[in-house]
Amino acid sequence: MAPAVSACCNRRFCCKYCSQCNNSLVFKCLNSPLLASIADCDESKPPSLEQLDALREFAGIAAGASAPESLATLAFLYMCLAISAKYGDVPSVDILVWSELPTGAGLGSSAAYAVCLAAALLMVCGAISCPLQEGESTARWTEEELTLINSWAFRGEQVIHGNPSGVDNAVGTWGGALRYQAGKITPLKRVPTLRILLTNTKVPRSTKVLVAGVKEKILKFPAIMNPVLDSIDAISQECQSVLEAMPANPSPEHYPVLEEFFDINQHHLNVLGVGHPSLDRLCQVTASHSLHSKLTGAGGGGCGITLLPPDTSPPAVEAAKQDLCACGFECWETKIGAPGVTLHSCSSLSARVLHALAQS
């Protein structure tokens, strides 16, 4: 069985590749004029509308199709052809995908998918090394190789979302926590492990539509909306200061401050127009258990996170989960701060993951 590549973005997403399998779809691409239109692509240039239209026509995907399967297919075709055109012979590959991440829920599932694809394709093309040594269960790439993975993953995100920020693929590549401001992404060097409840409202939403709605509101009411954005920025900076202070001084007094940040931030996000009645309900339910929540991702439904201070008892967490599930939501208890994209040996994967990959 081939190695598996995983990228963690709140929960888990991984793909298995096999370099000995045939892929007739890619083979047909290589023997068509389509390859010529992709030949000048690299990680420094976004995909053009003409290239994406050609891929849609080839794959039989209608213009404007937004189903996750269609977008995933487009991203795969673009990345496979572009990476292969730049780095040499096209490998014959079979990509198997398994995920615990629900799509369209604000958990970065598309970014995790793009990061895994980029790492696997770059490795089989020889653009990056295979870092896994004999006897090792997991391994990660060098900083330079991670930068290349991230660059190509961002291009895959552009195929799927149009104009993404790059935050999700950066987190999927490097893991941990990042600060994003004015297009600049900075890893936070010291962050604590925070326990959270991750709740999926199961309300689908489109990041592209929500982002467009926020932009429209800012253009319509700049004098009102810009101060809200400034306040959100201030919350982020204050939160970063608290998080970076916690490892050296793990005082329980930090958590009430983070809880207030959660509450203020959630109110601001509602003002921006990315809230949803399901997210309001989530916050009300957790508040009844003295817990504090906010949306994650683009909002408009999707998922929310609930901070679990260290003194939160297991019965209290279970009671909150039961009430959230009674609303039709899905809950998981997890932690913030997973490692980034990783190459796994088969022996390091759980039986459940191996079974899922084998059945794909």
From TrEMBL:
SUPFAM superfamilies, A to Z: GHMP Kinase, C-terminal domain, Ribosomal protein S5 domain 2-like
The keyword Membrane appears for this protein: no
PROSITE patterns, per database record: GHMP_KINASES_ATP
One Gene Ontology biological process: isopentenyl diphosphate biosynthetic process, mevalonate pathway
Keywords: ATP-binding, Cholesterol biosynthesis, Cholesterol metabolism, Cytoplasm, Kinase, Lipid biosynthesis, Lipid metabolism, Magnesium, Metal-binding, Nucleotide-binding, Steroid biosynthesis, Steroid metabolism, Sterol biosynthesis, Sterol metabolism, Transferase
Record InterPro entries: GHMP_kinase_C_dom, GHMP_kinase_C_sf, GHMP_kinase_N_dom, GHMP_knse_ATP-bd_CS, Mev_gal_kin, Ribosomal_Su5_D2-typ_SF, Ribsml_uS5_D2-typ_fold_subgr
Signal peptide: none
Assigned EC number: 2.7.1.36
Span of domain GHMP kinase C-terminal: 265-319
Domain GHMP kinase N-terminal: 80-172
Localization annotation: Cytoplasm
Domain of life where this protein originates: Eukaryota
Biological or metabolic pathway of the protein: Isoprenoid biosynthesis; isopentenyl diphosphate biosynthesis via mevalonate pathway; isopentenyl diphosphate from (R)-mevalonate: step 1/3
Recorded GO MF terms: ATP binding; metal ion binding; mevalonate kinase activity
Catalytic activity of the protein: (R)-mevalonate + ATP = (R)-5-phosphomevalonate + ADP + H(+)
GO cellular component, one term: cytosol
NCBIfam families referenced in this protein's UniProt entry, alphabetically: mevalon_kin
Function summary: Catalyzes the phosphorylation of mevalonate to mevalonate 5-phosphate, a key step in isoprenoid and cholesterol biosynthesis.
Family indicated by similarity: Belongs to the GHMP kinase family. Mevalonate kinase subfamily.
Protein name per its UniProtKB record: Mevalonate kinase
Source species: Zosterops lateralis melanops
